[in-house]
Amino acid sequence: MGIIHLLDSETINQIAAGEVVERPASVVKELVENAVDAGAGSVTVEIREGGIGFIRVTDNGKGIAKEDIPTAFSRHATSKIASALDLLSVKSLGFRGEALSSIAAVSMVELVTKTRQEFTGSRYVIEGGREKEHSEIGAPEGTTFLVRTLFYNTPARRKFLKSAVTEAGYISDLMQRFATAHPEIAFKFINNGKTELQTSGNGSLKDCIYHVFGRDTAAAAVEVDSEADGIRVTGFIGKPVISRGNRNYENYFINGRYIRSNIISKAIEEAYKPYSMQHKFPFTALHFTVPTEEIDVNVHPTKLEVRFTNGEALYQFVYRTVQEALSEKNMIPDILLSEEKRVRTVYAPTPESFEHRRITYSKEAVRDEAERVREEAIKATLASPLFSDTAGAGVPETQQEVPVSGNSLREEVVYGGQPTEKPGQISLFDKSEQNKEAFLKQEQEDHHQIIGQLFATYWLVEFKEQLFIIDQHAAHEKILYERTLTRMGGKQAISQMLTPPVILELSIREEEALKRYMGQFTSLGFEIESFGGREYAVSAIPEDLYGVDGKALFLEMLDNLVTEPPTGTPDIVLEKIASLSCKAAVKGNTKLSVAEARALIHELLQLENPFHCPHGRPVIVSMTKSELERKFKRIVN
Of 37, 36, 61, nearest to 142 (Cα)? Predict the structure, then answer.
């Protein structure tokens, strides 16, 4: 072994930087968090070569005082906390004091900043952790960071970066999360000279969702607002129709900070389970306000992980909130026969919001230009098919400029799919939603006109200029599933005796879980008794699950309870009930009489959630009369 010696400060800084600066997105994250903490109302991020060659982050925040600049680039230097006690009540996004020193250790950094109190700004250059220049410069209030040639002095780190396109994608995802986390801030993201994201900063989360995730996602967003035990959650969740194949669209923020949490993700996905297909994940944009003493954000340098003092209570709160929001909405999806055309956002080149004071034209010119843009936008909007008597297929793509808080953006818009009428009138889309709500009411069943069976699988029902199509197998499967759950939940479960009883030896954690949830097992129809030590005798299992190996079922349920928080009924039981319901339900390609179909539909519509089968497939879909008329060219404009 070599002689033990102290590392020099440059090596120490590069090692420490490895924990904070993993890739260009890490640099952007730290600098944008500082901008948010500085009270910025506008933040612009510009990158080139995926951020490897160039990163610029500009804000109109408080700025950094001239005398504080060198200290800001020292290790563990921060204005966010003063002592360890402050870690118990951290409200800022940054607080560790590692970001600037870590970034400067592995790149060439130029800083231009000015506070409101100072007459001139400051320019500070630092490369590889070594100060090169500190001088005065004319500058607006706020801060600009220029980061060039990332990892120029650590080539081993640089070669492990992905391609420029991939690294730019990471930064784009990051900026989308920042925009969603802080709708009160105007964000702008420029990649190789092209503006890819721009938000108005008007405080509307729904507007941010529209600009970041698109029109379809915004249209299918369900508002959430709930509070319990000092924790509040607001925001939007998506209807199951916009589910994705990964968790990238599950966004949730705690006190303005984007985090990842197995507890919150699990609660959200469990609440969506009755509505979504397997391996599909929902869209969420949820803002949590949690007392700072209830969480620990000082877990990892990236600050993506958070610990909760009462994770189970949080789980139940999130699960209940999402479940209630979904149960209050109609989830019957629409069938659209008209061609859906894409919507593309094109951002016109405009000055950044904090640079307007440097534009030389007069106030009168600004006012005249704003009025002209406004009038043109109104004319374009009124001329569009959105405000015609009917809207439908065959409408050409149009481009219109829409003013967004001083910034103009253009969109290619096609208003096919969901027709709307003139302002002030009830849109056809609203009528469609009202028809869906009425269709589900028991008193409206006499007005259901059953047209017949299609392909010996689907039943067609006409109701108020709308066609509803019901999958008989999915409907019957859902009915059997809910019927069994109701019987179990009402403690009407019938047990099937096992002779002889199954004797099991449990681990300490399994025994603890069994004792904690013994009431659940009993209500489901299990009979379990202590057999001495850590051995237990299972003498009965639920009769509804006849044919399932009793020992295997019990152990799978116990494993589920040990590793994951419960939602009232262990997942394994729900899966078994779903499987048995599927086997017992009437199959597709089976002829049913109209009377049988009417009885099936009647029982289906009594359920709280008649929209999806236990596996998440849709049970009912609908199509409006106007959709058919557009397809047959009875509506041509």
Answer: 61
Locate all alpha helices (DSSP H) within 205-310, ordered by sequence.
Answer: 205-213, 215-219, 262-272
Number of alpha helices (DSSP H) and beta strands (DSSP E) in the chain: 19, 25
Give the 3-state secondary structure of residue 621: strand
**SS3 labels along 326-388:** HHCCCCCCECCCCCCCCCEEEECCCCCHHHHHHCCCCHHHHHHHHHHHHHHHHHHHHHCHHHC
pLDDT, tens only, 209-249 = 998 888 888 888 999 999 998 899 999 999 988 888 888 88
SS3 content of the chain, % helix, strand, coil (to 5): 40, 25, 35
Which DSSP category does 617 fall into?
Answer: -
Give residue-wise pLDDT tens across range 2-32.
Answer: 676 665 666 656 555 555 688 999 999 999 9
Q: What is the mean pLDDT of residues 188-203?
A: 92
Nearest-5° Cα angle at 237, 235 to 238: 145
Cβ neighbourhood burial of 104 (10 Å; 0-12, 13-18, 19+): buried
Per-residue pLDDT band for 361 (boundaries 50, 70, 90) equals: very low
Predicted local confidence at residue 489, as pLDDT: 66
The pTM for the full model equals 0.66
Q: Facing residues of 404 across strands?
A: 407
Helices 472-489 + 571-584 axis angle, to 10: 130
The vertex-285 CA angle with 95 and 574, nearest 5°, equals 115
For tokens 């249209």, name the residue. Answer: 219
CB-based contact 182:212 (threshold 8 Å): no
Q: Nearest-CA neighbor of 585 among 479, 512, 438?
A: 479
Half-sphere exposure of 143 (CA within 13 A, CB side): 25
Q: Quick one: pLDDT band at residue 390, thresholds 50, 70, 90? A: very low
Encoding tokens for residue 81? 């906390």
Closest alpha carbon to 81 in 71, 93, 73 = 93
Geometric angle at alpha carbon 152, from 17 and 103, rounded to 5°: 30
- Whole-number Å distance between alpha carbons of 55 and 11: 24
Q: What is the pLDDT of residues 411-430, one digit of tens each?
A: 333 333 333 333 344 444 45
The tokens for 418 are: 């969901």
How far is Cα 181 from Cα 287, in angstroms, rounded to an integer?
A: 7
Is residue 588 left, alpha or beta, with left meaning phi > 0 and alpha meaning psi from -120 to 50? Answer: beta
